[in-house]
Amino acid sequence: MKRVYVDPDVCMGCGLCEVYCLTQHSRSLDILKAYRQEKPRPVARIRVERHGNTAFGFQCRQCSEPLCVYACVSGATFLDDHGQVAFDESRCIGCWTCVLACPYGAIARDDARERVARCDLCGDPQGDGLPACVRNCPNEALSVREEAV
Amino acid sequence: MAQRFSAKYVIIGGSVAAVGAIEALRAEDPGSPLALVTEDRVSPYSRPLISHYLTGERDLDGIRYRPPDFYSRLGVKTFLQTRATRIHFPDHCVHAEGPAGEAYEITYEKLLLATGSRPARPPIQGLEAQGVFSFTSLEDAEAIRAFLPRVKAVVVIGGGLIGLQAAEALSNLGRQVVVVEFQPRILSPVLDAVASGYVEQAFAAHGVRILTSAAAQRVLVDSAGSVAGVALKDGQVLPCQMVIVAAGVTPRTELAGAGFAPAPAPGAPRAIGVDERMQVQADLQASGGAAVYAAGDAALGPDLLSGAARPLPIWPNAYLQGRVAGLNMAGRPTRFRGGLSMNSSHFFGLPVVSAGLFDVPEGADPQEWEVLTLSADGTPPAAARPGHAPRVGTSSSFAVRPGARPGRAAARSGAGPGHPQVPVASGAGPFYRKIILRHGRIVGLVAVGAGIDRAGVLVGAMANGVDCSRCKEDLLRNPGIAAFPEQVAAAMRTGRFGSHWWMAGDREER
Ligand SMILES: Cc1cc2nc3c(=O)[nH]c(=O)nc-3n(C[C@H](O)[C@H](O)[C@H](O)COP(=O)(O)OP(=O)(O)OC[C@H]3O[C@@H](n4cnc5c(N)ncnc54)[C@H](O)[C@@H]3O)c2cc1C
Fold this sequence. Notes:
The complex is a heterodimer of chains A (149) and B (510). Chain A is α+β, with helices and mostly antiparallel strands.
């Protein structure tokens, strides 16, 4: 399964991945407009986890037994034909069952839109385009790899 | 003459447990004949979404659980609007009746009972009156909608999840709604007093009356046979033109027959007892074969935390059980390690969740148990009446400083045993998070408002039995995997640890 990995020794917790993720999932695709003008404000799908001296950007693990998919009551979160976790946001009702199910805390609530915000590998799970977080990490702490789990 | 069919796999029921099984079966065995019998007239839809259908926010396509061509794409021969009437177990044969009275006999090698549950009928007189509905199916929602034009006031009997979803929808449709709850508080099987107090407040703020410790005794019927009101045990009469009966659900076990022993849990409703492969125990004993499986609301499987058989009539559990049944039916041995009580709901935009326990059990040894709470500030919410304050063992509480943003603020130690810190709705909306630990492991969670963010981290720790004695306070304040000991966090970063606590494959075990 393809997923983004983080090297916590290299991550400095700058939070730029969150900013670029949010921008990538905005209407304007413009870093300033996305954050300052778009209402409701877009929600980042990656989150910098911080604890003591460690920090690391973290998002969907693309689980081989994806509980979010199994728990989803609407069918908005599903497995696509390639077995990758996919999300049809128009079907989501914001019941937050997947927020309760995801052991990684990797699903954010987009409260204003009453739906969840979750990593979609920037809409390119099969291609080789890099997700915005990986592309823009100044320290190259993030990378995409395919690994069987 | 009955029409005869035969399929390697036969499933009775067309809801989430069936979908879980079909998706597992087809991943393992794309080609073998698979037949499905269901009373439903449409491909799988979401019961939790029927309130959105009732309000008109969503049409049928909007509440479908899978695309309309789900069955045909996966090569499932379907018998819609068809009721399985009897199973002849020695011959492996399902007898069924179609919408026009057609008789079918369908033989199987492996059979799954995914027959779910039906609304329970409480002992209340007058339930046959016109205007009395249950609220568990698409057809219920349609019937309610058709009847609504003559309705101003509705009484909902039952303040559980289903009753409250109906109450919210009907209130949003402009009807006067009163909820009658027998217990001292609503949602008592899944929420603690604080959280259910918040939900009560949300309903009150939207003009919905909630009567607790109230018993509906009789539906009053007018001369035309229509609902005129509900009489309570205390003599109160609530005038209304519609009654929604939402007093729980009962597993549909009738097909399992007399030979199928009910599971042995004391006090549990009769459901189909299954082993860890979701095989029906009685079938195994009777025939020595492994032909009949059950999953979902109809089945009585193990609870992960206690190991005991326990009904868990929730959507995620039905999918997981269906999946395990499907894998085993297809020949991939898989154990169901247990389901977790896991509830997420939102009423008038207020999210509330719980998982595992929501209070420390009575008589628990205070040495073993601990309750931590985090709240927007330290005062109790109006709706959480003192008599129903959450029971705590050894309790240390944390309250975010007033005005500070939840999750960012520093914590301070709070009240001692018997005086749990309970929150109050603030400008930013309610915030509440509570974890229950036993021997340093999380066994319960309740959260309200933004307190639900990343709640899954706490549930994952619970389900995986992670020792949280050193990180519990960090987890409470700011749930995230960085709070765990580094070995656990590192395993989680690889995605190898976390989401398959409910199952174990035989290969893995060896
Ligand atoms: C209004 C409502 C809201 C809910 N909200 C939530 C929620 O938010 N979160 C949550 O976790 N859970 C929720 N639930 C509970 C959840 O919907 C159930 O746990 C789940 O539907 C159980 O799935 P199942 O597949 O076991 O059975 P069911 O969904 O009950 O389906 C049973 C299937 O079996 C068929 N069937 C039964 N007997 C026969 C027969 N003899 N012949 C042919 N077909 C038969 C039926 O037609 C149906 O297709 C809600 C339930 C309701 C009613």
